[in-house]
Structures are given as structure tokens and as C-alpha cells.
């Protein structure tokens, strides 16, 4: 398998090359701007987002790596090792347009990394007029600093600049220390952001994509999907629940398959990305259907996955 790197602001990972609709065409180009794509979806009303279910599998951020397993015309079938979906499976799979990924030199994750900690910010490619909107948790190798900007290396090999106040610089990708207080603070920063099926970026999250990124930003790697997130971590009794724990909800009044996840924030409340048509919000555990569907609590401190 060949390893490629995402070279667009984000990359949508589709179930098949036939999955994108006419309103998704803006998301298939090398100049993909997720803001324009979402605007196009919303022009079609609620169905623009609802119909992503069964079409959009997940998303990747600029600079994230994938393994290409096969090709079909202008499409590549990829595997995403960092987005685990089971113990046996190597990672999420799906299709991306060929022009949204590029072959790039091996990346040294032990060198300083620049991680975007603002909701979004703009990357300016040196010597060009190219300006890319990038998401929270996009990570790029540090090159240097100049006044109020940080200089980074990009997947294309070019040098880019990011606003210094929008990023955190860490010695390596694994150097961000676990912090529950940071996790809680970051999650609430996204209150009001519309839900997006398959979303893992600050342009729109689904429930598990939201937890996946917030936990990573606070120094803890967890699986991508709610059902897999519920298989790891430490099982916690409700009497022992603490802010920062993950709450899982299942069909059939908590006895069926897990379909939703949120994070406990204290005082019988949790924060979550509910469903299409709604936005990231705080809800009460005593409210329906959450009271009936709560099935388990898990705690991740950075050593369980």
C-alpha cells in the first residue's frame, strides 16, 4: 500500500465514487473550501445534510496521512489507520478524489508540531496567493517563527504561514499532556456548531467525531466511532462519574446497539452533537430519550487505547 497525505482543507471520505450528489461537487476539487460546500448543502434545506447518511463515511484534515489500497479512475480507495473502527480492522476505509491527496516525504512526528487550536484559521502558502481555511486539530511540522506568524511545512513540500495566536506548538505529536479541564473547555468552545454526518472537523462534527477531536486536543487518543469508543477506556459506575467521562446511548432503551456518545460536564449534564438539523449543545441526563437510553460510562486518561 502507498502512503499519501491530504492536501486540501479537509477531505471527505465517501462510501463509493458514486456517493457524491450534484450538491457535493464543490467538495471533490483540489481547491475544496468546506465553507462553500456546506453553504451549498444548506441551500437544499435539511435534506442536503440528511442525505449524507449512507454516503459520507468520515473526514480527514489537511496533512493527515492515508494508505491507498486501490484505484478507480480519478478515485482512490483508502484506509485510515488512525481512525480505528474495531480491534481487528486496520481503520476506516472509503474513497477520496485523487487530486485531494499527494505523495509526500515521510513525516517526522518527533519534531516540533504546530497544532491549530482555534476553531479555524487560514494557511497562506509562501510565494503564492493560495489561502486555505484549516480546521481545529490540523497539525503541521514546525519550521520557524516570524513576528506574529509561525512557519510550517506543508504536504506539497512548500512553506506556509499560520497566525501564531491560532496555534499551539508542541515538541512532538505525542507531547500534548492529558488535561480534563482543557477537554471540557474545548468542547464548550464549539457550542452552536451545526451537526454534520461523518464530520471530524470544526466545519461540522458528528457525535463521535466531536469526541475524537476534542479528546485528541486534550492529549488522549480514542477510537473514531461511538461503538468502538465504548469498548475501551475504563468502565465507570454512574455513582463514580466525573466531568470528562464519555456517556454512551443505545437503542431499545439502552439494551440495543450503541448509536450516540456525549461527554459528561457535571451537574447531571453532558455536551454532545445530537443529530442532523441540530447543533452542539448541553443536555440534561434526566431528559428524554437520554435518561432511558444511557447504557454505559467510560473514562479515558490516555493509557487505554
Write the layout of secondary structure elements.
Blueprint lengths: L1 E5 L3 E5 L19 H9 L3 H5 L5 E6 L3 E8 L2 E6 L11 E6 L3 E2 L10 E4 L3 E6 L5 E5 L3 E8 L2 E5 L5 E5 L3 E4 L9 H10 L10 E2 L2 E2 L1 H11 L8 H4 L4 E2 L10 E5 H4 L3 E9 L2 E4 L8 E4 L5 H4 E6 L6
Antiparallel strand pairs: 1-4, 1-7, 2-3, 4-5, 5-6, 8-11, 8-14, 9-10, 9-13, 11-12, 12-13, 15-16, 17-22, 18-19, 18-22, 19-20, 20-21
Helix pairs in contact: 3-4
Task: Characterise the protein shown here.
This protein is α+β, with helices and mostly antiparallel strands and 305 residues long. It has helices at 34-42, 46-50, 180-189, 207-217, 226-229, 251-254, 290-293, and strands spanning 2-6, 10-14, 56-61, 65-72, 75-80, 92-97, 101-102, 113-116, 120-125, 131-135, 139-146, 149-153, 159-163, 167-170, 200-201, 204-205, 234-235, 246-250, 258-266, 269-272, 281-284, 294-299. The protein has a seven-stranded antiparallel beta sheet with strand order 10-9-13-12-11-8-14, with no helix packed on it. Strands 17-22-18-19-20-21 form a six-stranded antiparallel beta sheet. A five-stranded antiparallel beta sheet has the order 6-5-4-1-7, with no helix packed on it. Helix 3 (180-189) packs across helix 4. The longest helix has 11 residues, at 207-217. The model has no long low-confidence stretch (mean pLDDT 93).
